[in-house]
Amino acid sequence: MEAYLTVTSHFITGDWRLESFVLETKKMEDSHTADHIARELTEIICEWDIPSSKIVSVVHDNAANMVACTNQLVQQPRWGKMKGVRCAGHTLQLCINSALKQDPICRTVAAARRLVSHFKKSAKATTALQEQQKQQNVPLHKLVQDVVTRWNSVYLMLDRLIEQKGPVSAVLTDESVSKRSDRDLELSTSQWRTAEDIVAVLKPMITLTELLSQENNASLSATVPMLMNIKKRHLVVHEDDSRTTKIIKTTLSDEMDRRWELKGPGLEISVYISAAVLDPRFKKLSFLSDDQRDEAYSVVAELAESLTDRSCQEESDTVDPGPTAPKQDAVMAMLLASDEDEEEQDETSEMKVYLKDFTKCNGGPLEWWKKNEDRYPKLSRVAKRFHSIPSTSTPSERIFSKAGFIANKSRSALFPTNVNKLVFLAHNFRRIRQPQVQ
């Protein structure tokens, strides 16, 4: 019953590898208010001496205190031009939960939950299920119980039930195994059909969640394009869809529009769209209007120029090489330059050249920028900023799981300082170890 706050940092290395490290795990003595969390986060970045120019975003879940916290941090000069990013996985789960609350979907899920719970509590029924699986040549899989805090666990529960429909029904109708009251747990024909509709609609959501939760890939840039693709290609309501399918599709589509502002005025300037501009796979932004697209390109181009100016200023502040003569080639180019050269230079700005570049992006955006960084030095700075942002808080959630093995019943007397050190080492040590030279 001790509360801790763990902060992870994410960045892209010089060779375009996405890395993450635990900074600190702090015990939360006071209530989890936005003010308290904001103070703790500020203390952590001050302890690590992280400059405001290096802070791009804070990724968090949709809890009201975390949203209020990031709104406070945005107003503080110490945090620079940081933007709050809500965890895409958690947001997607909220969208799915809204769809699952609709009737008759919620009643089918509740019935499936009771059915799975029966097998989880009865050793006799579980043994009989295994025998039926062997007889019917069905995979020897256990039933899955949904968990409230686990993403898309309802889908996993229903999908496994559908797979095991034959053995489950056989066990429930076997009078030597099941009581009369147990037989009432069997799903009706309409409920089995509803379960199949739920699984069919939610299946791509599982894949989407897995893609967004990958820790070693740049996923923020793909968030909105993939959501748009799902809406356009999967969530379109057809006349021959069942009532359940129509309800789920409509609810999911409406929730996505509301939570990601996919139809709102903020879409063209969001961090998601800026990241998509710098992803060669989605830079055409075909899901935006012409005006929105031009605005997005302009925002990224202006940021590239400002980062370049800031970098030059920082270099001039730290290094004073003294007067140097320009290279002879540069002088000759200046003397021999024509008006046509100036016009060509104006027409071939980095953004314009980048948008016309159709070089294949087979290995993902980081691999592409690794090969093309020298061609687009200004845009590459912006690409590193946006592609370093994880689209979900999954990396921090995984730290919670790891911390559970450290701070357990057998180690209930650990001091908070030792919890911090152990979590720090458990996560970071394997990432900085160098191979031993034989």
Structure description:
This protein is mainly α. The chain folds into 3 domains: 4-86 and 393-432; 93-260, no CATH class; 269-314 and 334-387, no CATH class. 59% of the residues lie in helices and 6% in strands. It has 20 helices and 4 strands. The chain has helices at residues 34-47, 64-74, 88-100, 105-121, 123-135, 153-163, 165-173, 180-183, 189-212, 220-233, 243-260, 271-277, 290-318, 328-336, 339-347, 350-355, 365-372, 377-387, 394-406, 416-432, and strands at 4-12, 18-27, 57-60, 83-86. The strands form 2 sheets. It has a two-stranded antiparallel sheet. Strands 3-4 form a two-stranded parallel sheet. Helix 2 links the parallel strand 3 and strand 4 (83-86). It is globular and about 80 Å long. The model is unreliable at 338-348 (pLDDT under 50). InterPro entries: HATC_C_dom, RNaseH-like_sf, ZnF_BED_domain_contain. Residues 364-428 form the HAT C-terminal dimerisation domain. GO terms for molecular function: protein dimerization activity. This is Zinc finger BED domain-containing 1-like protein. It holds the Pfam family Dimer_Tnp_hAT.
